[in-house]
Amino acid sequence: MATTKSPREPYVVQSVVHAAEILRAFQTRGEVLRLRDVVERTTLGKGLCFRLLHTLRHCGLLEKIDESRYRLTSDIQRRKRYRIGYTALGHHSSFQREVQQSLTYAAKNEEIELIVVDNRRSPKVALRNADFLIREKADLVIEYQTNEAVAAAISARYLEAGIPFIAVHVPHPGATYYGANNYQAGLLAGHYLGRWAKARWHGQVDEVLLIDVARAGALVHGRMAGVLAGLKETLREVVDTRPVVSLDGDGQFNVSLERVRAHLRRSKAKFVLVGAANDQSALGAVRAFQEAGRAGTCAVVGQNGAPDVRAELRESRTPLIGSVGYFPERYGDDLVQLALDILTERPTPPAKFVKHQVLTAANLAHFYPNDTLMPPAAARS
Description:
CATH class of the largest domain: Alpha Beta
Strand content: 15-25%
CATH superfamily of the largest domain: Response regulator
Number of strands: 15
CATH architecture of the largest domain: 3-Layer(aba) Sandwich
Largest sheet: 6 strands, parallel
Number of helices: 16
Oligomer: single chain
Strand order of the largest sheet: 5-4-6-7-8-14
Distance between the termini: 49 Å
Structural class: alpha/beta
Shape: elongated
């Protein structure tokens, strides 16, 4: 962890600098650390960390809760109440709603004032929201908008105002990135589709259908490239010899539904593998194949692992075979911790990636045991 002053700067007392570094190692209210944890989070040696922990405890700034663990005392936990802006992508999907719920909860736990505005999937609204949060003098902004074309303009506003910001899922110049490891997420989907086709169809595939989000730009295109790469690693002959069709579903259920409907009127392919850029597109494809009476000869994998797609996975005859999980319920804790690291000038990586896992009907109970309390998909549509 970098300290704030150079050792050679006049009037700086290095022992105080080192003590401050120890205190900054405690990242959240009530966090408990062992000596080895403090050593890992600072630039200080083990012996110096031990002496400083003992000294700070003696001064009443730390308390020792057992033989080897420390935490901040209640007095030192009091800190500035940050105001953080959150520009929501929209509230049209359960994934976005779950992200916002988790962020609201995490901000409350850290006594952060969260200023929430809705981008409504509109570049113009996103620009207006950026101006609003600048006027509100937010300490930091979590920007969730997925139109790559407007990212530079939004970034310019925050950078000029001197407001640090985190970009969710689509990179913005000058922002810390948080979100999907896009190629890896696509690769997981492609591998799973390929293995499923081998097991269920003996590798017989007539067409690969990819449903992209053109406005999201290169990173989400990388997700679809990962799907193809995963398929090629498991079913090379399919990618090399069968049609690969790309449609722009715009990340929305209705758009994806209409475009897959139109495609199915033209295509006579029997066994079709579908890789979708997100769950809304995946569900649109599922509905289109069901309407066409072709649900039994297609297999769909989505991206996000949102509540509505988890409910669909539990349906017995759905063509949806999986979704690459992004675990939106974890976004709040991750984003708030990342924001606090930035605001307190702790070292932060340029990008923090979500850890992905393919969710299927077989493993949902492990990752989401409480989902069984939800009504079935048909009852909620």
